[in-house]
Structure prediction request, 71 residues.
Amino acid sequence: DGNNDEFIFFAADQIQYQMKIFDRWGGLQFQSNDLIANQSGWKGENCQPGVYVYLINSNHRQFSGNVTLFK
Prediction:
């Protein structure tokens, strides 16, 4: 339907950036160090439905949480 089809981190003034997404077993499913390239976001294309953990490091701040993938 085109709604919520990707998980994107956006910040206009970020200099340093890293985003990682892990499955429930700790396996790395997505990684990006390029804020511009990440505008396409994580789509979970090769992932099973479920809960995934994200870690974002940006300008010496860390964000974490979970995102649920539905298909």
Summary: The longest strand covers residues 50-58.
